[in-house]
Design a protein that fits this description.
This protein has 437 residues and is an alpha/beta fold. Helices cover 35% and strands 25% of the residues. The chain is built from 14 helices and 17 strands. The two termini are 48 Å apart. The chain binds NADP nicotinamide-adenine-dinucleotide phosphate (NAP). The site of NADP nicotinamide-adenine-dinucleotide phosphate has 25 residues, from helix 1.
């Protein structure tokens, strides 16, 4: 049998400790599958005394992950620390430069330094595997990088943040407010104490930027993503969406258009009957549309120790199965030096259907004025409905409009016009509608 593959794990938290446990518990099965043993030869974390739920006495301890990254004792450096700079970046760079294969689950690191790190990996002829960085346990990177050779991707979109999907699912199922749902999610451990990163779309944007690069062969451009979070979604939106045959999801969408590539993260209405609308709770899903295959949807657990460890171990097993002298495929599907600069499509030229919810004074002429602003901007309406608001706000009405395909620029101009007309009593709500099968 070939020599054992020696793994060094940096970070022994939720994911790192699960990886160490599964490598231990499934050692015999992994040896059968890979044709060689996989051993944890070294580990690094902050606290050497903490019980990690697995016996790591045989592994050499390193206080400094960058030292472990270049240690002679390891063949593969597994980075499970997190963060886009600091020890994670320093150690991954050191490992690649020292000719070690790297496995990481760190989307923030890849969103910022992915292309530069890929260049080092390709120059050194080592693997940089990152399946767990996007949608946790779902094997989307492998699917896009390996199983879809020859396909040209036209659009990739998905539910990439379990916290947001959990909140939106409960808001719909139980009729409770965003704030109440968020508090509950925090109590149950589905949301961080500071939830901004998740609920304002940053986490989704990091993952989307990696998928965009794989899909379109462009340099990662995480800072160029249009982003809106879910904190302003109300029960009124969720109920109106349901009445119209839609469900609200936070989607990350990357799409090739005539003017460039759109990358956007925002609350989106998807048809209730679509497959992606059936993805509930903390589950993630990624839809990939291509010229040859059509639409593929992968869904499954997007986070959690074991689910994420499953993806990390798949990456380690791929390295165990590769042989010396084997030419590894490029990190982002094309050689890093050939990734094209990202050509950003302007959000104003985004074309699609829109849901617009307006709270207006209950006065004669308001309805007609709204319809006129729409017509003036060449927006064709699929429906326009007004509802009276009962109770204290009886002097107000809600007007809900659904447009046929139009542009972001036209919708913004029309809504600005309506706002200037002085008919609104509250901020207008605009939610984009996404085509989904
Ligand atoms: N959790 C998930 O469900 C999930 C899903 C997908 C991807 N990921 C990604 O996986 C990575 C790890 O996430 P996690 O949830 O496992 O994080 P975590 O539970 O916070 O664990 C982080 C680990 O890093 C160690 N660490 C921190 N600073 C260090 C340093 N300077 N040197 C050495 N070790 C250091 C910590 O050591 P101590 O334990 O001693 O403090 C801890 O073991 C992140 O990039 C995350 O985005 C996580």
């Amino acid at each position: 049998m070939a020599e054992a593959l020696r793994v060094g794990i940096a970070g022994l938290g939720t994911v790192g400790a699960s990886v160490a446990r599964v490598l231990h518990d499934k050692a015999a099965e992994l040896t059968r599958q890979c044709g060689r043993d996989i051993v944890v030869a070294a580990v690094s974390a902050r606290d050497p005394k903490r019980d990690r739920g697995v016996d790591l006495n045989a592994a050499k301890w390193f206080d400094d992950p960058a030292k472990m990254a270049q240690a002679a004792e390891i063949d593969v450096f597994v980075e499970l620390i997190g963060g886009d700079e600091g020890p994670a970046f320093a150690a991954v760079k050191t490992a690649l430069e020292a000719g070690r294969h790297v496995v990481t689950a760190n989307k923030a690191l890849l969103a910022k330094h992915g292309v530069a790190l890929a260049e080092i990996a390709e120059k050194k002829g080592v693997l940089l595997n990152y399946e767990a960085a996007v949608a946790g346990g779902i094997p989307v990177i492998k699917t896009m990088r390996e199983a879809m050779a020859g396909n040209s991707v036209t659009r990739v979109f998905g539910i990439l943040n379990g916290t947001c999907n959990y909140i939106l699912t409960r808001m719909e199922a139980e009729g409770i407010s965003f704030d109440a749902c968020l508090k509950d999610a925090q109590r149950l451990g589905y949301a961080e104490a500071d939830p901004t990163f998740d609920i304002e779309g940053h986490d989704t944007a990091h993952k989307l930027s990696i998928l965009t690069s794989l899909a379109f062969g462009t340099k990662i451009a995480a800072n160029d993503i249009y982003m809106e979070g879910i904190s302003n979604i109300t029960q009124a939106d969720i109920r109106a969406a349901g009445d119209l045959g839609y469900r609200i999801k936070l989607l990350g969408v990357a799409q090739r258009t005539e003017s460039g590539i759109e990358q956007r993260v925002h609350p989106t209405m998807v048809p209730t009957a679509s497959v992606i609308a059936q993805v509930h709770g903390v589950v993630n899903a990624v839809a990939i549309e291509t010229d040859i295959l059509g639409e593929l949807l992968l869904s499954g657990p997007g986070a959690g120790g074991n689910a994420t460890a499953s993806a990390v171990i798949g990456d380690i097993a791929d390295i165990a199965k590769s042989r010396p002298g084997f030419q590894h495929g490029p990190v982002f599907g094309r050689p890093a030096k050939e990734l094209k600069p990202y050509k950003k499509a302007q959000m104003r030229s985004h074309a699609g259907g829109y849901f617009i919810r307006l709270t207006v004074h209950d006065r004669i002429g308001v309805f007609a004025a709204i319809a006129k602003r729409m017509a003036d901007n060449d927006i064709s309406l699929e429906s326009i409905v007004q509802h009276a608001i009962s109770g204290e706000a009886a002097a107000q009405k809600t007007v809900i409009l659904v447009t046929h395909e139009t542009t972001e620029a036209a919708v913004r101009k029309a809504v600005d016009g309506i706002t200037k007309d002085g008919h609104l009593t509250d901020k207008p709500q605009v939610i984009r509608i996404e085509r989904a099968g």
